[in-house]
Amino acid sequence: MTLAVQFTDVSRVFGDVKAVDRVSIDIQDGEFFSMLGPSGSGKTTCLRLIAGFEQPSAGSIRIHGAEAVGLAPYQRDVNTVFQDYALFPHMNVRDNVAYGLKVKGVGKSERLTRAEEALGMVALAGYGDRKPVQLSGGQRQRVALARALVNRPRVLLLDEPLGALDLKLREQMQSELKKLQRQLGITFIFVTHDQTEALSMSDRVAVFNKGRIEQVDTPRNLYMKPATPFVAEFVGTSNVLRGELAQLLTGSAAPFSIRPEHIRLQEAAGSDANATDVLVTGLLHDVQYQGAATRFEVRLENGQNLSVSQANNQWQQTAPAFQAGQQVSVRWAREAMVALTDVEGR
Amino acid sequence: MTALSTPVTAPPAGGPLQRLSNLLYRKPNLYLAMLLVPPLLWFGVIYFAPLLTFLWQGVYTYDEMAMAATPDLTWANLLALFEPANYDIILRTLGMAIVVSLASAALAFPIAYYMARYTSGKTKAFFYIAVMMPMWASYIVKAYAWTLLLAKGGVVQWFVEQLQLTPVLQFILGIPGVGGSTLSTSQLGRFFVFVYIWLPFMILPIQASLERLPPSLLQASADLGAKPAQTFMQVILPLSVPGIAAGSIFTFSLTLGDFIVPQLVGPPGLFIGNMVYTQQGSIGNMPMAAAFTLVPIVLIAIYLSIVKRLGAFDAL
């Protein structure tokens, strides 16, 4: 298995800000790989390092085995779909898509055929004569995709390409992108700050925080076995418990995570817990109805807040209607607790 | 029952200002009219009507004996423009306007590109001031200054001597149509002064058009495999054409209409502006002055339609 992209101890420093700090990643050929993180976490800089818009301050970047540091963007066999699409406003859709072929000297008839083919691939056949301004956001996004794919890159870089679309369109594009990636078999590197998007599309996800990678894993592992408090809280919602409480519950001061949906809420008096379950009492201080689920906020005796989420389905016995202000017990299985490693302040 | 007796449109509360404000809010067209009528009146009465009246005199008959124009309509003045002496003036002016526009664009582009792409904050402010400062000085003073700089024994000649390039200068001054006895009486010197004076009008529009160019477009071009020269030809240049066109409209029309520089710098031979000035001021031949005034207007109209046909404004 060859590596599509390999980062070895890559850093990128802007002034005294470490945008990317000693990052090492191995991205497999043919993988749908996402870089997830809040804004300013270094994910976009990493993408720009692969594209060649930035050069690393230190470290090595290999693209399909060849050292890429020092190569200009036009010397790299990767193509980018930009966040703002970056379509050329003075060219029609066909010329936009054929641009990469034109500058590489591909003959006119071949490049027009291939451009038309690429437009067909993104369901925009027949839109060739329009100008970018005449298209909707979703259509522009597809043109940007076709313009990159027409060059048959081995690695496609996508910089938050769905950020500007509305929810329905975004979900539709997500599944189309995933389908396209499977069909073409090329490596997709997808930058996003939307954890749902990253989880639903990717083979593997790298979670970025403050210029460093906290965890690289499959979506399922990322959610079920977060490695650090940051990952636990950024991917999905989580209760991270530490200190004395952690000591009391797990016998170790290391922080652990417990997902809100793994916690059951019950009457304070109830004590039908399994011997293996954790059972604590607290004050229910907020109830939020969210449609598919209801969110309960419970304050434990030591002041720690705990989020509890319960599905609103007919199987769920919703019998006691919990009211804010009442004393409750919360209960969860020991296996649901995930030990975390504190990496802050490395 | 107060609720029923209240009219549907609530009475405007407050004083007359409040009522006026409400009225304007309800009638946006009235608001627009109040905004536009004064400038339109100014434009129409002070500017447009006199210009049309003046141009209309271009078809009046000029009586040379009486030194006065009579409102007998004739094509004679307009036809007179095509007499060799007059036609020469038009060609001389037009040629200079074209050459000055081309040279200004070539000189302005790198400066504008540097300003738009590589400067920010204080450096950018410095460049703005540096570009505009010459415009703060009186235009006539600058033209006079240039006559001194370019004159025999002037600074430019001194520099050329220090660089041992006097033979080159002599050779250039010997070229017919370009040279003259000194730089300040040559067509070349006149060209220098025009380019110097109108350059800011070219730099600023190009700079503005390059500033609007999103950096991601240049990155996209490189990303798709374009070498820097290809990115320049395919993306940067086409998208800055509206700026170049806007700048060249300034340099072109300002050169066409100028009558001071041709008077102070360069060989004898009138420009359109001088001709209008002479006909109107010295001779009093209003109809001929009007006919000459029409020339730059027509030339600019032709120029604009060519520029438009070339697609210069498509990227706007």
From TrEMBL, chain A:
Alphabetic keyword roster: ATP-binding, Nucleotide-binding, Transport
Transcription found in the keyword field: no
Endpoints of the signal sequence: none
One GO cellular component, as annotated: ATP-binding cassette (ABC) transporter complex
Single GO MF descriptor: ATP binding
GO BP term (any one): putrescine transport
UniProt protein name: ABC transporter ATP-binding protein
UniProt source species: Pseudomonas turukhanskensis
From TrEMBL, chain B:
Keyword field: Cell membrane, Membrane, Transmembrane, Transmembrane helix, Transport
Membrane topology: Multi-pass membrane protein
Domain ABC transmembrane type-1: 90-305
Transmembrane segments: 30-56, 89-113, 125-145, 191-210, 231-253, 259-277, 289-306
Pfam families membership: BPD_transp_1
Gene Ontology cellular-component annotations: plasma membrane
Protein name in the entry: Spermidine/putrescine ABC transporter permease
Lineage: Bacteria, Pseudomonadati, Pseudomonadota, Gammaproteobacteria, Pseudomonadales
